[in-house]
What we know:
The chain is an all-alpha fold.
Amino acid sequence: MDSRLKKQIEILDNSVLNEDFIDIAYDVIEDIETHENAFDAVEHVLNLIEQNPDIDFGSPGPLVHFVEQFYGNGYEDKLVQSIERFPTSHTVWMLNRIINDSEGEKKEKKKFYLNVLQNVLHSHNCSDELRSITNEFLSLHN
Length: 142
């Protein structure tokens, strides 16, 4: 990862508790997107969400818009890994967005993603609020 990209990621990390985080994130993400290797930041963005489960990242917000541009190009795998490490309401919501798009030829993947969602309920990191959100998403797909 080049030093300019590392610097932008550092700004995200240092700003996450700032009340203007969303505005800062839009600016930082705009710069990250100009990098040839922007995908390298996806895992870090997901880690940031994991490590800050109580932060409002927007709906969907700049971070989700950024990582979702890599849909079909590796983002899904990184998201699943993040959820398996430490599920949050935001990452579970992101997974539900993928499930909603998993029709037709993507139907087999839908089963896989639903299993990932189901496994959140058994995570030792699953709070009552996250359990409720996860159950709500699961009920939409039954």
